[in-house]
Write a structure and sequence with these properties.
The structure is a single chain. The chain has 383 residues and is of the alpha+beta class. It has helices at 2-18, 37-56, 67-71, 95-112, 119-148, 214-222, 234-242, 280-289, 297-303, and strands at residues 172-175, 178-182, 198-202, 205-208, 251-254, 257-262, 265-268, 313-319, 345-349, 365-367, 376-377. The chain has a 4-stranded mixed sheet with strand order 10-9-8-11, covered by helices on one side. A 3-stranded antiparallel sheet has the order 5-6-7, with no helix packed on it. A two-stranded antiparallel sheet has the order 1-4. Helix 2 packs parallel to helix 4, helix 2 packs antiparallel against helix 5 (119-148) and helix 7 (234-242) crosses helix 8 (280-289). The relative contact order is 0.14. The mean pLDDT is 97. The chain binds fe (ii) ion. Fe (ii) ion binds at residues 43, 73, 131, 135.
Length: 383
């Protein structure tokens, strides 16, 4: 059965990602927005326990009555939960106990899946697997944040630099003027925020078939980009000044030049590599300096078949809003995406940290404009 194989593959990959960790690495949380590995492992298991097993498997006995409180993220339907900032303050359950929880849930899921006849339930499990894949990427980005703020700058895995790749294409892709269909066509899995497929009028234009590189961005820095208020959005200028921002996240200037933390450890900035870890504000300031602009998410989507994408989440000029006809599913899973549709910007594509088989051209990622711990980059509209 395909669902069983998918379940085993995705669940195993979370543990594969943890293989280089030492036991201390599983626990630490240094900022509210970046959760510790132990919590990710527990929370992704809780999703299946809470929404599948507890609701639909009459034989299921919960592993621990308080784990719902520990591992619920933001689902008001699923009750109270520990404060997000406190996820790293728990030495118990131990890492070993969290793995035991995972394996208990896996055993129950593998026994339960063959009995499923209901398409809705099948789709709920597929949602759970896609949810886990999202957390696999968060695992890497959150871990990078913790290790990258440790004075020792320890490597997670010396074979996993991730941000060393450059452009493999050049030139531009023309965008035709006219009415185009946007959103998921219903074939295969998609999140609710990719629906409803609808029409958008697109103006003629041209989009770069390459991303901004570190070399490009170094020119912006050396030209005083971070000191020139005229390039910045008002919110962005406040952000730069309030936080003393003068480079992308993880960059630092040394006597030998710019260096950055990567998951393979501290490295010199590779000028040919694609720019990474920038905020929406930085993306906009760079575009302004370049006399260009960011594509809208619609311009991006109608061009995607002809673009080389997938190394960076690409900031777009589009606010994260519901499509026409968007509707939330009833119950807890209705909280998955819809309630976050304010004050965030859409990112398109995928990144080098995105899990296998978790990318599609209609995918709408979303983050707040100042956030940059994801593998974010920038593509410009051609001037
Ligand atoms: Fe989650």
């Amino acid at each position: 059965m395909a669902l069983i194989e998918d379940y085993q593959r995705v669940r195993k990959y979370s543990e594969t990602l943890c293989a280089p960790l030492k036991v201390e690495d599983y626990v630490v949380q240094i900022v509210e927005f970046a959760s510790p590995p132990k919590w990710h492992l527990g929370h992704t298991s809780w999703f299946f326990e809470e929404f599948v097993l507890k609701q639909h498997d009459d034989n299921y006995q919960p592993f621990h009555e308080q784990y719902g409180y520990l591992f619920n993220s933001y689902y008001n339907h699923a009750g109270d939960r520990i404060l997000r900032a406190n996820r790293g303050n728990l030495s118990r359950p131990t890492v070993e106990e969290v793995y035991a929880y995972r394996h208990y849930v896996d055993q129950a899921m593998l026994a339960f899946i063959p009995s499923i006849r209901d398409e809705g339930l099948h789709n709920l499990i597929v949602l759970g697997l896609n949810h886990e894949q999202q957390h696999q990427e968060l695992f890497l980005t959150d871990l990078k944040y913790v290790l990258g703020h440790n004075p020792l700058l320890p490597a997670y895995d010396t074979a996993r630099h991730l941000v060393d790749g450059g452009n493999t294409t050049e030139g531009t892709v023309a965008i035709e003027e006219g009415v185009q269909a946007i959103g998921h066509d219903g074939t295969g899995f998609a999140y609710d925020n990719e629906y409803t497929r609808h029409k958008v009028y697109i103006n003629a234009g041209s989009i770069n078939n390459y991303l901004v590189t570190n070399r490009d961005y170094l020119e912006f820095i050396e030209d005083g980009g971070y000191q020139n208020f005229s390039l910045w959005l008002e919110e962005g200028w406040k952000w730069v000044n309030n936080h003393n921002i003068n480079a992308p996240l993880y960059w630092r200037e040394t006597e030998e030049g710019w260096r950055y933390y990567t998951l393979a450890g501290d490295k010199p900035v590779n000028p040919d590599a694609l720019l990474c870890h920038i905020s929406f504000y930085e993306a906009c300031a760079f575009a302004e300096w370049n006399g260009a602009r960011l594509p809208t998410e619609f311009e991006w989507e109608v061009s995607a078949d002809n673009l080389d994408w997938g190394q960076r989440w690409e900031w777009t000029a589009s606010a994260y809003l519901p499509y026409p006809g968007y509707s939330k599913q009833p119950g807890a899973v209705g909280e998955y995406n819809g309630k976050f549709m304010s004050h965030q910007m859409v990112l398109r594509g995928a990144s080098v940290a995105t899990s296998p088989e978790h990318s599609r051209k209609t995918y709408r990622n979303f983050f707040y404009p100042h956030e940059r711990w994801q593998f974010t980059g920038l593509r410009l509209m051609a001037c």
